[in-house]
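In this section we walk through a basic example: taking a raw amino acid sequence and producing a predicted 3D structure, encoded as discrete structure tokens. The instruction is simple. Fold the sequence below.
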Amino acid sequence: MNITIEALTPSRSTVLIDYLNKMDFHHAPEWAGCFCRFHHLDCTEEQWSHRSPLQNKNEALLAINEGRMKGFIAFHQDQCVGWVNVNKIESYPKLKSFVDLPIILTQTVCIVCFVIHPEFRHQGLARRLLKAAIEDYDKQAVQAIIGLPFENAVSPEKAYRGSPKMFLEQGFEVVKEKEGVFIMRKVLHP
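The resulting token sequence is shown next.
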């Protein structure tokens, strides 16, 4: 499988938005129209439910173009086939009450979402995106990366945060389990 992975840049903003817009979310219709904005916002579930896909799409484009929404895109030839949303943990206000502050080092990034094209699932693409994120943030001297995977044996395609096994293979350690989510951390630069 010929895959290349790139960091998300403003020049690739429309590529990512088109990919998310065309993604088949039949397994989780509530995800359609999110455009990976859910964790970036500090709003209640009720407030989120009143947001439109167009509002999320426009905010995502603006955030990418301003460098506030980050991650990595996977390409097969010229086709976008995968995405991981990873950024400084402060970029995800929705997680403030979920991730305990003592595990967050001064420079910590968090992985909140993988979106893999259905034809490329179960082929190690999420692992490759995770590895690219680790390598990139290691070069930037980020202190730690946090992942929030969970098991979903009933609907594995809904495990949008990756699997605990995938993170363990890359040297992450389970810091805590909370509400079925494994809060995992890999220290890069203590």
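Looking at the output, two observations stand out. The two ends are 35 Å apart (CA to CA). The first helix runs from residue 13 to 22. In the next section we compare this with other chains.
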